[in-house]
Amino acid sequence: MLLSEDDVALFARVSGDHNALHCSPDHARRTPFGRTVAHGVLAALGTLEERAPDGAGVTAVEVDFGNPVFPGVRYRSEALDAARSGSGHRLLDGDRACLTVRVRPGTSPDLDLLPVAPVRSASRLTIADLPPGTTVSGAYGPEGIDALRDRFPVASRLLGRTPLACLLWSSYLAGMCLPGENCLLGRVALRFFPVAVSRPATLSYTARVVHADHRFGLVSIAGEITADGAVVAQAEIEAMVRTPAPPATSAALATHLSPSTRLRGTSAAVVGGSRGLGAALSLALASQGCEVFVGHRGTLPQNLLDEADGLPGRLRSVPGDATDPRWSSELRARVEHEHGRLDFLVCSAAPPLRTLGLAVTDLERMDAFVTGSLRLVSAPMAGLLPLLEKGRGTCLVISSAALREPPRDWPHYVAAKSAVEGLVHWAARHHPGVGFLLTRPGMLWTEQTNSPSARETAGPVEPVAAQLVRRMLQPAPDGTVPHLIAGEAADPVGAGRV
Question: Where does the chain cross the membrane (predicted)?
Fold first, then answer.
């Protein structure tokens, strides 16, 4: 099963679900997914398109969502056992289930539906805004549904016109209304009732929060869809309400590293310096008087600029793709012209971290992740190490505690960080004019790892950034092996140790 960006755009237009996770690359890049994600209901239609049995009409549809589905990635579908009533199908990414969908055949409602203009902006509700009893209501009618039926004729024939519209409504409700922009859909269950309406009808709906789990950000929603007062469908929807990871703040940093002017007159380049630990490092260096060239994609976040306002140093925006040697070349010319040398290079960028295995279907994405991760270190090093050597500067590279305890679903991440550390060892031996530091922080609460479990166990970025910059305030390490910053000490790392 393969979905395209055009499929996502078509689904958004017909369903009215223009949630930014699906439709805004800039927004999606700032989430743990790193790119736009296909609508869950769209992925369910794609699964049914490949696996739907003969027949037309359903009395119930259930979809359980597990892992994200990305446009441009090929997935495998399989039939489930028939122990339960109806037919079931699973969509797989390697050996990981993305979703399961079950349909129960029968006589479904068949109405001539009138289109209704959807809301254009998604609600931005947090879990605190959604106590039980929270209710929304309105009218719904997908616009141009025939285009979607033409794209998925098998699934559309199986479901029938009205159940398909109700399934689209579930995506619209969760992604745009309740809970809205911060929604991650977990489950949709729809039960349909035969309805006879002789004229074109508009669907009316009411949806109410029946349970909210504030610890994990989960909501359960009960909904009812009617036409001319007759019940067409009843719905049960479960969703996670994402809580954005807190950005680094200068106030939190100051509790671990007092502002000073000890680095006044120095310069630093921070690759991946606009988010997460990289942003905290940018602020920490600026808090010591350093002029920090922040490497980032897109626009430098305004909140980061606001946090830097008033610090002894300052942040300078360097947008672009750090894997492209031209980015380092242009930055090198800029720094050389303004400062003559570079005192610090921090490599903190990494590609979006998604679950992978070691299945044959994972190999292409694994190769891309490892190559991309290494390039985010090798390209800046290739372009900027000569500037560091002018004044015996320091290069800090962010590795990971995952090398000590490799997570099951991150073989690509462990391989990438191992490759990065290998490169740092080589560079330390062959560029003795630069001091090299490695650090392997544990789980930090950033958008890269933002999940309910991370909120429970991950630490803030500011203490780690403060510790690293305290070490950078000391003389650059000597020797031909990198030093590992562990606790408050900088210990050498043997070349064979990972």
Answer: none
